[in-house]
Amino acid sequence: MRMARQGKVLTILFLVLVALVAYLVLSSESIKKTDNQAAPTRNENVVLSEQDYQAKVKEIFSAYQKLAADNKFTKEKVAELKNELLKIKGLQEKFQKLHLDFVLALDKTEDYINQHDQSLGETSQLIIDQLKAGYSWLNN
Fold it and tell me: Does pTM top 0.85 for this prediction?
């Protein structure tokens, strides 16, 4: 009687174990399917072509230059330019320094507007001048 009872307990434990393994296998298959379906919509690894990147940055740079020439810097306009620049994804490695320096220049311009510190404005302009010298396509 005791053996029969132990046999029943072992059988129940075995069935629970089989059910658990089956559940894990089936749920891992559904996770794989979900991951595979989501993969085509990810654009994180898409790299912009050189022409596309240059066109986008040149447009933002020209807008910045126009604001500087007209002396119409406002917090909102500079923030808008910076946001447009930060939206650009997939930049090539050779443009990373340009991108970071341009964001830094916009940050310094924002700080200049907020703090009315002339040295911040000069620093921003120095960065912009270096960008123009280093990347001639920004001047065209």
Answer: no
- The DSSP secondary-structure symbol of 49 reads P
Burial 17-52 (b: 16+ CB within 10 A, else e): eeeeeeeeeeeeeeeeeeeeeeeeeeeeeeebeeee
Residue that has been written with the tokens 């559904």 in this structure: 30
Q: What is the pLDDT of residues 36-49, one digit of tens each?
A: 555 544 445 677 78
pLDDT digits (tens, 9 = 90+) for 11-37: 887 777 777 777 888 887 666 665 555
* Closest by CA position to 107, among listed 130, 128, 124, 132: 124
CB 84 within 8 Å of CB 99? no
In this structure, are residues 136 and 98 in contact, taking their beta carbons and an 8 Å threshold?
A: no
Alpha carbons 55 and 59: distance in angstroms, whole number: 6
Q: What is the pLDDT of residues 99-119, one digit of tens each?
A: 999 999 999 989 988 888 888
Angle between helices 96-115 and 118-134 (to 10 degrees): 160
As a whole number of angstroms, the distance between CA 9 and CA 15 comes to 10
